[in-house]
Amino acid sequence: MSVAERDLARLRLIRTAGIGPVTYRQLIARFGTPEAALDMLPTLARRGGGAAPCFADAGLVERELATTARLGARYVFLDDADYPPLLAEIDTAPPALIVRGDLSLASRLCVAIVGARNASAAACRFARSLAHDLAAEGATVVSGLARGIDTAAHVGAMPNTIGVIASGIDVTFPPENRDVQEEVAAGALLVAEQPPGTQPLARNFPSRNRIIAGLSLGTVVVEAAPRSGSLITARLAGEAGREVMAVPGSPLDPRAQGCNLLIRDGATLIQTAADVLEQLRPIDPRSVRAPTASYGGPPPADADDTDRRRVTALLGPVPVTVDELIRQSGIAPAILQTVLLELELAGRLERHAGGRVSLAF
């Protein structure tokens, strides 16, 4: 099979309705190739009690591949050797990234700097200085190309920076960052998960945030209000076992409340680039596994109707962890994952943060 045919098959599986990052990994682990997984989708969905998912049209996927190439970008798939190693470690790693620029930046010590869009002038100056100092020490600064802190971090770190966007690789948001985004793409690294032409919809920003956190060994929040997107990134970083750091601010400034709350709850207080590097450099890089093309072998056997009934009876509208389902059902983990996969492809299962699942109603 040629590289083009392989990419077409992988992207067609990724773009098929109902196939998320976790499902993609499980399908490749189970069937070995995207072609085999596509062939088995109707059977799996039928076992889960639903209709076959709507396959991504091969012609549309071919046009997406052509558009991406025409834009000067390329795909990096999860089982490619140059897929960012830290990002590959998280359970919800995107099966495919679209990138422009120098992908080697993602293999260095990466530090995320995030914060408020309506940040104060002092916070933007601090973020720009912090990013510059980290880049001078050889670190790569990761952020989301938003207004405020993100923009300041990219400008300060250029060209040692990675911009992760919630839109297609050809769409700029906010519009005033067009020049900055193009500078990142031309001289650093621009990363998107969504297909070209995708507008920056609100539902795509949490997905963008998980990539920022996943690429980075640590995340620094410079200024953020409670319940902001920056705190989502910090939470995702913590869930991934990465360092969470925050810059303290005045208790009289609402934009500093999020950072102060993070510090109160255990985040490391940061004042200089040296503080950041002190937290990150003692981590042995050998503790980070390199991604591999293999996702493990298939489960020892298919689930039977008894297994399916047992698992379905334990599920409800309230999300529950997969570990709890394993404990209560007494079913082998691989078999339980098979049942969950069938239910998800049938449209009867929803996946939630923290490895939790629930029945879809």
Write up this protein:
The protein is an alpha/beta fold and 361 residues long. Helix content is 44%, strand content 13%. The protein contains 15 helices and twelve strands. Strands 1-2-6-5-4-3-7-8-9 form a nine-stranded mixed sheet, sandwiched between helices. It has a three-stranded antiparallel sheet with strand order 10-12-11. Helix 1 packs parallel to helix 3, helix 1 packs across helix 4 and helix 2 packs across helix 3. About 3% of the residues have low confidence.
Major β-sheet profile = 9 strands, mixed
**Silhouette:** globular
- Cα(first) to Cα(last) distance is 41 Å
Beta-strand portion reads 5-15%
Q: What's the order of the H and E elements? A: HHHHEHEEHEHEHEHEHEHEHHEHHEE
Give the integer mean of the pLDDT values: 90
Quick description:
The protein is α/β, with parallel strands linked by helices and 361 residues long.
Topology (SSEs and partners):
Elements: H1 3-15, H2 21-31, H3 34-47, H4 58-70, E1 74-77, H5 85-88, E2 96-101, E3 110-114, H6 121-136, E4 140-143, H7 149-157, E5 161-165, H8 178-187, E6 189-192, H9 204-215, E7 218-221, H10 229-239, E8 243-246, H11 257-264, E9 268-269, H12 273-280, H13 305-314, E10 320-321, H14 322-329, H15 333-345, E11 349-352, E12 356-359
Helix pairs in contact: 1-3, 1-4, 2-3, 3-15, 6-7, 6-12, 9-10
Keywords:
361 residues; alpha/beta; nine-stranded mixed β-sheet; three-stranded antiparallel β-sheet; 15 helices; 12 strands; 13% strand
